[in-house]
Specification:
Helicase, Ruva Protein, domain 3; Rossmann fold; two-stranded antiparallel sheet; elongated; about 290 residues; Arc Repressor Mutant, subunit A; 13 helices; mainly alpha; 9 strands
């Protein structure tokens, strides 16, 4: 959530490879049984269900950048395949005989300590040294206050394009964004901007348009939670009015209903609800 993929995109589009593809791979999501096909592709008829040729991630990224997100979650068997391609720069599609050569820049990201994983034997040492040419530590967003507004403007521009609108941040909203600790990192910021655009009623995002936690205010109680106090007051007043009307009408529901501009049936229902009974003699009203 610290923005690893954003950095990978920035590296790609600022490089001479920017005109070529940027291909992302979620290392934790690839099924081991399909990893060969996903990464290297397959030929038609290579296995059951292979109805046509498939181009794998390495081939898709040829000339560009291949981004392995969460590489620390990659199984050891897959790590061995990746290492072989990185060292030889060649591979074959599943079911194919042709040796393919690719030229890709590999960018890897992880939230794990790969050095510890190497010591524990859960990450290959040779792959670690192969991909560890340059490290870019990425601190959490709370430690990069200077990045908040720049990232917010980036997400705002993208959301404006998607929603076909032109909303901008007010100075007060910017101050709120800078003051927030962002425990959810980049994802929280992205979601906050998207919510604010949808909630804004003008072309300017105000602090009230931001999520309560970001704006530094307590969330409003849900409407259902506020109902009891409000409705208790209303019901208490209505109950007292009915009792007063019945007493003035000396227990006559028809007379009391007329005085309250209600039908007799409506008044009767309300009396039942409040536990009120009309009497034929003083005090004219009995409350159950």
């Amino acid at each position: 959530g610290t923005g690893k993929e954003l950095v990978a995109r920035a590296l790609h589009y600022a490089s001479p490879r920017s005109r070529k593809p940027l291909v992302s791979v979620n290392s934790a999501a690839i099924q081991e049984t399909l990893v060969n096909s996903e990464l290297f592709g397959h030929e038609k008829g290579a296995f059951t269900g292979a109805a046509e040729r498939r181009i794998g991630k390495f081939e898709q990224a040829d000339g560009g950048t291949l981004f392995f997100d969460e590489i620390g979650d990659m199984p050891l068997s897959t790590q061995a395949m990746i290492l072989r391609v990185l060292e030889g720069r060649t591979f074959e599609r599943v079911g194919g005989r042709e040796t393919l050569r690719v030229n890709v820049r590999v960018v890897c990201a992880t939230n794990r300590n790969l050095e510890d994983m190497v010591e524990k034997g859960t990450f290959r040492q040779d792959l670690y040294y192969r991909i560890n040419a340059l490290q870019l530590p990425l601190p959490p967003l709370r430690d990069r206050a200077g990045d908040v507004l720049e990232l917010a403007e980036h997400f705002l521009a993208r959301t404006n394009r998607e929603q076909k609108c032109q909303v901008r941040l007010s100075d007060a909203a910017k101050d709120a964004l800078k003051s927030h600790a962002w425990p959810g990192n980049i994802r929280e910021l992205k979601n906050a901007i998207e919510q604010s655009v949808l909630r804004s009623r003008a072309e300017l995002i105000l602090p009230d348009d931001l999520p309560p936690a970001v704006a530094g205010r307590r969330p409003k109680a849900p409407l259902d939670a506020r109902k009891p106090k409000f409705y208790e007051s209303v019901e208490r007043l209505e109950r007292e009015l009915i009792i007063s009307a019945l007493r003035e009408a000396e227990g006559s529901k028809a007379e009391a209903a007329r005085g309250m501009a209600l039908s007799v049936n409506t008044l009767t229902n309300k009396m039942t609800y409040y536990g009120i009974a009309a009497l034929k003699e003083a005090p004219w009203v009995k409350v159950v």
